[in-house]
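=== Discrete structure encoding ===
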Amino acid sequence: MRNSWKVAKWEIRRNMKNKSFIISLIITPIIFMLFAFIPTLFNSDKETTQVYILDELNVYGQVEEMVAASELNWNLHQTDLDEAAMAEKVREEENTAYIALTAAGLENGKIPVYLNEDVEEDFLYEASILETPLRQLQLERMDLTDKQVEVIGKGVSLEPIETTDTSSAAKEESGEAEGESFDHIVPGIAAGIILFSIVITGMMIFTSASQEKKEKVAEIILSSITPTDLMQGKIIGYFILGITQVAVWLAFLLPIALWKIDFPIIEYLFVPELAVLLVIALAGYLLFSAIFVGMGATVEDMSSTSNFQGIVMMIPFIPFIFMGPIITDPSGVIAKVLTFIPFTTPGVLLIRLTMLEEWPWIEIIIALVVLLISIWLAMKAAGKIFKVGILMYGKNATPKEIWKWLWT
């Protein structure tokens, strides 16, 4: 194990000095940041509309509060101009609107808005926020009782009622279930990102083994350590690189998510369920990395990778083929069967547990046992393939040769 750690440290140092790895480490979160910031940049380019309010109704303070709360791109001003002067003045200015909040307009139910042709088309939609305080003021001037004003002000809305559960207890349970679902969704997405990231990094094992074989570096390395130590060192090293990559991405993206999304991500992220999901993600990495490192040793040159080796590289993405049935029915037959097939267990289990409110713990335990046994078998098989394949030159190994190595 000591030699394995030496190999792991060597792989980490080598990749940390690799320009392509450093670029991918930084560029990926920058791309996500651009997706978050570009719409904001476009919005910031939108010219601020100069809005002048003639306030005969004494509601200017409420208008200011509502504009600020709605984050409208308005620059508010008060004015004493009458409507004739407004119509004249608006022609002389750019990106300007005049709103006459007058008693006559309130009584008629029509508030005049004078717009310059440069004003954005959605201005009138934005100005609809003024309807609520004006409607309330209209009701107050009708000499209605406070109770009548309150009832009319509420308006009427349609509320869906579940016919199966109408009790308050059922509603409370529904609210609790919604909270529980977030307890699963947020850590599930986080674990999925971690699995995807370290599996992508784990694919670099394939390239590393193939490159060392092509450059005859493996012969030198194997003169001082065993093939098993070399293989284990690569798996450990690339796992640490993958975790480093995830940590850097989260350092960039988590603050942006907290800023852009009005949702308590941290509260729902660090929950007990996260530990189970991370175990599944780690187990998935160990399984796929064993496959990758074994297959990497059978390839003479990355440019001449055979169809067989190429197909093997697609194994982690098999769950995406069945994404539709799994999402539609996470407790269905297809989802359950794929849960117990080692190659699909990590991805399918993460998707299912993210969507299910109540976890099927018996299925989870059985799936993890199957996955751990599969990891052990894959490591043993990868060790045999790696031991022979890393020193074979001149051609890619065929499936028949690989099968022979497994049984010798």
Residues 105 and 111 are 5 Å apart (CA to CA).
